[in-house]
Design goal:
globular; 0% strand; binds protoporphyrin IX containing FE
Length: 333
């Protein structure tokens, strides 16, 4: 039974691209939530505690911000995000079914074959399972238990593997899928963490507006920067590998629609990385000292985030674009 039918709605349809974009945003935010909760905030807390010990030794008392509030605030993101991802995955199944079976009468047999007998179906089940595991982890009463954290991280890897295996990496075997899973996780570590820091952690601190609140912003950004640098390097390495495999030749970069779409992605990456470098080199050193530096950070990070969201739009188009080799008939999708 051919799973490909002549339909007007396809994987390149704007509605399907929008669903794929929502999936990437959801997964990136979930990865960012975990990184901020279990890596960035604890590091900022340790740095602030160290600072207040040093200041106390110098006879200067620095009241600490109750950072557990910040951690709880970030934790509370996970359940609605996992639920939203669930809804997106149901929409993605409907879109894929429609792309495969067209507008004809609904057939359970086609849906069963799509979900249980296709590579796409396996990837979809992995993403759904990951979202379900995250939801379960958020429902557990024992919040701070290490094993809850372990369940959360494993669920994120399963979810990212599902996303990665739903793209062109599926034609490259498990190595390509493993690299693509790293790519999706690194995207979340950089862009997802940035979004959680800028949209969830900084606003209450900026509203407080005290010297200590600004010092906490500085500690949080200082803890975020190395994460962004490592994630950025990983994104580049795994991205170049995926691009080389997908393009097949260098000139396919400008001779194919896939290649030109990738060029747009890299141009937007220039904006995101450039703003990120500006924040790291220019804004970070002024945080916690110069008045208005928190406001300056929020402005420039907003640019970084908007460009990052645009990268995910272009990526959703990229994943749906036939590979150059597919168009020349060298490989079959
Ligand atoms: C901020 C930087 C980046 C972000 C947020 C990002 C995000 C993503 C995401 C989420 C996917 C998986 C999409 C999916 O399967 O639905 C992806 C795929 C991909 N990315 Fe990136 N990426 C970034 C940088 C790069 C770079 C630097 C390159 C190349 C040098 C690259 C090349 C690719 C390729 C080739 C794919 C596979 C698309 C396909 O399935 O055909 N990415 N990216």
């Amino acid at each position: 039974m051919s799973l490909v039918a002549e339909t007007t709605f396809g994987v390149e349809s704007p509605a399907y691209v929008a669903i794929r974009w929502a999936q990437s945003v959801g997964v990136s935010l979930l990865v960012g939530t975990a990184i901020v909760r279990w890596l960035i905030l604890p590091r900022a807390k340790r740095a602030l505690a160290q600072r207040s010990r040093e200041s106390a030794a110098a006879g200067v008392e620095i009241p600490a911000i109750p950072d557990d509030d910040l951690m709880r605030r970030v934790e509370r993101l996970a359940a609605p995000l996992a639920l939203a991802l669930f809804v997106v995955e149901v929409a993605r199944l409907a879109a894929q079914y429609h792309a495969v079976a067209g507008g004809d009468a609904f057939e359970v047999a086609i849906l069963r074959a799509l979900v249980f007998s296709s590579h796409w179906g396996g990837a979809w089940i992995a993403t759904l399972l990951g979202a379900a595991l995250i939801l379960a982890a958020t429902r557990l009463r024992v919040r701070d238990a290490r094993w809850v954290e372990a369940v959360f991280w494993s669920a994120l890897v399963v979810t990212a593997a599902g996303v990665a295996s739903g793209g062109h990496a599926a034609t490259g075997g498990w190595q390509a899928e493993a690299l693509q899973t790293l790519h999706v996780l690194a995207a979340g570590a950089w862009i997802g963490s940035l979004a959680v820091v800028v949209l969830v952690v900084i606003p209450p601190l900026a509203r407080l507006g005290t010297a200590t609140a600004h010092a906490t912003v500085a500690a949080v950004i200082a803890a975020f920067s190395p994460v962004a640098l490592v994630a950025g390097a990983l994104l580049l390495a795994t991205g170049v590998s995926a691009a080389a495999r997908a393009l097949g030749s260098f000139d396919a970069l400008w001779l194919s629609t896939y290649g030109r779409t990738l060029i747009v992605k890299l141009a937007l990456l220039g904006v995101t990385a450039g703003t990120g470098a500006y924040n790291w080199r220019r804004v970070l050193p002024t945080l916690g000292t110069a008045a208005g530096s928190t406001a300056r950070l929020r402005r420039s990070s907003a640019v970084e985030l908007v460009a990052a969201l645009a990268i995910l739009v272009v990526t959703a188009v990229l994943v749906a674009t036939p590979l150059p080799a597919e168009l020349s008939g060298a490989v079959h999708p």
